[in-house]
Amino acid sequence: MSNFPGLRNPVVANQNPNKSVEVVQPPSDSVSSLSFSPKGNFLVATSWDKEVRCWEILETGSLNSVPRAMISHDQPVLCSTWKDDGTTVFSGGCDKQVKMWPLMSGGQPFTVAMHDAPVKQLAWVPEMNLLVTGSWDRTLRYWDTRQPNPVHIQQLPGPCDALTVQHPLMVVGTRTADRNLVIFNLQNPQIEFKRITSPLKYQTRCVAAFPDQQGFLVGSLEGRVGVHHIDDSQQSNNFTFKCHREGNMLYSVNSLNFHPVHHTFATAGSDGGFGFWDKDNKQRLKAMARCSQPIPCSTFNSDGSIFAYATCYDWSKGEECYNPATAKTHIFLHKPQESEVKAKPRTGTSIRK
């Protein structure tokens, strides 16, 4: 087990200590997912207020957000993803359905997938022209959106909490006592490739496949991230490191995002902090100042020039710590500097044992 070096994030009672650009007209309740279009700076947020919102982010010297469209579900919305051509958004949640929204053509949303419990994760796989949906009903389902029934239902060892795809690699994090991570080779999607126990001791919150498909990151409730390779011959390169912690306080790692150009990655957590890391050189590149509320989700845009993150109360400290006067929802846009997200030469002193 290793520590990335660097100073702890400073604790500040500030909604926006990093002077990020705030998105206008944010949701009225906590944000559950953020996703950028792969073809332009269109940002979609899903929320516990049952809404799916889209903004266009304009880069005209500074960043500006323009609300473009919004649709509703019958229950809180938990997840979203885009089709690879940037025309269409998928959203799923507690109403147990997935809606397909032809956003760019101005079309109306319609249901394309159903589960027996809330839908927690979505992934569009362009290589297969299929939508993968993960649910708390302990199944993955693969959908051809032109057909009413799934083309395959895959049983899972527990409720699906996390999902990541870099074709042909897919990794699913499940909520089980032994913290199962299920690995699939999507060239043979109906058979588990491998099932492992998470290298972390507590419940999995998020996973992110390496851009080269050779492994994945996993984040958990304990403020720790695991770096794990698929090939058994690479197991000596696996390690875990501490991140979203303050003294004896452990905070959930809620989001893991690889930079689309530099292939470094960002973490965001319930401590209100986010930062940028280099797994290959085992270095922390930049720790940003902590916001006064947790960060439940984050994402890069398609070229990595914008990092979007939400702040809101995430109920991790229970109802007794909820203060409606301060628990406002915000979505922020950060423009990473190259020094924050581009790998630096390894120094040999980058890890504290």
UniProtKB/TrEMBL annotation:
Instruction: State the Pfam families in the record.
Output: WD40 (PF00400)
InterPro entries named in the record: WD40/YVTN_repeat-like_dom_sf (IPR015943), WD40_PAC1 (IPR020472), WD40_repeat_dom_sf (IPR036322), WD40_rpt (IPR001680)
The segments labelled Disordered in the record are: 1-27
Segments annotated as WD repeats: 24-65, 70-111, 112-153, 253-287
Q: Which terms are listed as keywords in the entry? A: Repeat, WD repeat
Organism's domain of life?
Answer: Eukaryota
Check the record and name the SMART domains matching this protein. WD40 (SM00320)
Q: Repeat among the record's keywords?
A: yes
The answer to whether the entry has keyword Repeat is yes
Task: Indicate what this protein is called per its UniProt record.
Answer: Protein RAE1 isoform X1
What is the species listed in this Swiss-Prot or TrEMBL entry?
Cinnamomum micranthum f. kanehirae
